[in-house]
Amino acid sequence: MVTIAVCDDHYQDLQLTKQQIEQIITAHYAGIPHQILLYSSGNALLKDTAILNTIDLLFLDIILPDLSGFEIAARIKKLCHRITIIFLSQCEWEVYKSFQYQPFRFVRKNQDSKNIEAELTEAIQSFIEIHLEACHMCAFRYGNRSIFVDSRDILYMTSYNHNLTVVKASDCFVCRDSIQKRSEELRKYGFIQSHISCLVNMRYIKKIRTYDILMQDDYAIALSRHRKKEIVAVYCQYLQT
Fold it and tell me: Cα–Cα distance between 140 and 218 in angstroms, integer?
């Protein structure tokens, strides 16, 4: 779940920004679970303490009726380090001052709507890509939509005739994908390719046997004899970390 908040005292700007964010996510990340929260003042945002710690990305105006965007950013940095801030403001002369609050981006309101949309799109795409990697999320194309899966929930993948079966503890699904591409992508998350058609998550290995790997769901994954020595060494190293 990606939680995005927008803080702006102008109702029309608040609704327009929400609409633009929804359109960008629908166009580029249709399957990603998300919510967009709206706040018309800094105090309303800061008082919502139960939600504050769940916010991933905050679009923040600078000129607000109670607290300035900079004051809000300073307080948020003390309260919750996980929130990424994007200033969305007409005050483009404040862009250099904003640097001390380490924003992810500064998007100017007072420009052509197409330019605003382009800047918002680039900012959201960049943030979500970083967020997905930090959360170990993988995107799979399933028909005409995307499925986002936490790689830590994947037990293993098997490939046959360009179809990739992704098995989780709770369910599984089949999509058109390359196991080689996934092997390269997921190596840093503790996955290892045991066979030309099999990719396993080492956290779910029960036992490496002579000709296969027994997974925690008792499914036996093919083990290439040419890769066995390397796989055993990598797995032993994994267990020590």
Answer: 25
- The per-residue pLDDT for 214 is 97
Protein fold of 2-134: Rossmann fold (3.40.50)
pLDDT at residue 50 in the model: 86
First to last CA, the chain: 28
pLDDT band per the 50, 70, 90 thresholds, residue 112: confident
DSSP string, 30-91: TT--EEEEEESSHHHHHH-HHHHTT--EEEE-S--SSS-HHHHHHHHHHH-TT-EEEEEES-
Report the SS3 class of residue 149.
Answer: strand
Tell me the pTM.
0.74
DSSP state of 205: E
Q: Do domains 2-134 and 140-240 have the same CATH topology?
A: no
**pLDDT (tens digit per residue) in 49-98:** 888 989 999 999 999 988 999 999 999 988 877 899 999 998 888 999 99
User: What is the rounded distance in angstroms from the CA atom of residue 156 to the CA atom of residue 169?
Assistant: 10
140-240, what's its fold?
Answer: OB fold (Dihydrolipoamide Acetyltransferase, E2P) (2.40.50)
Strands 212-215 and 84-89: unpaired
Tell me what the mean pLDDT of segment 192-220 comes to. Answer: 95
Domain ranges within the chain, ordered by starting residue: 2-134, 140-240
CA dist., res. 20 & res. 120, Å (int): 8
